[in-house]
Amino acid sequence: MKNFNWVFFAGMALLGLLVLVFPKFWINLVVFVIGLGSIAYGIYNLVYTRRIFQDSMYETTILVKSIFSIVVGIISVFLPLFVADIMIRSMIYVLIVYLLLAAIIGFYSVTLLKNTEIDRKQYILENLCLVFVAVLLILVSPEKLGIFIVRVIGFAALVFGLFMLSVQFLFNKNVIDAEVVAVEESEASDTADSSEPTGDGE
């Protein structure tokens, strides 16, 4: 567990430094990751969510959402590989529109489950997450502001990672010092016990 903490916080500090130095790369990476997530989300809806309620309107709604997610996801994944940076930034706006529309469609599909015994909390949470990611993309979509926000996030991760590494170092140092003191006291106690007269010679 201790080793995991060291690796985790060191990784966080390193990641924060890389985000701080290369903000544009990480914005593009976010587009790529959201694209992959969109494909996976579309397939999940198509395979699982569409089948939880046998209703033509519900199934059609989820089908549209699934195809929409997969198409936008494929574009988001492959577009950055072939086009210039300006088109990648345009893709951010496409993702914002997609996330908001997917959330609207999702909330509508949740209303279709209202009179069923199906638990809707999971699907409400899914759509709230879509809105949350859309808001994050809206914040980073302006080039200068987006780079500034990403750098702030990177700086925060770097500082937090270094701070926690320092805490880990001081904690381990205190533990080692306490163990050394305990060993010394134990050795001193053993020495004192061995030097006491046993009374056999009286």
Describe this protein with a few key phrases.
mainly alpha; 202 residues
The shape is extended
Distance between the termini: 56 Å
Structural class: mainly alpha
Unreliable stretches covering 5 or more consecutive residues: none
Helix content: over 70%
Mean pLDDT: 79
Portion in beta strands: under 5%
Q: How many DSSP helices? A: 6
How would you portray this structure in words?
Helix 1 packs antiparallel against helix 6. The chain is mostly helical and 202 residues long. The protein contains 6 helices and no strands. The longest helix has 53 residues. It is 85% helix and 0% strand. The chain is extended.
Write the layout of secondary structure elements.
Layout: H1 2-21, H2 23-47, H3 56-82, H4 85-111, H5 121-140, H6 143-195
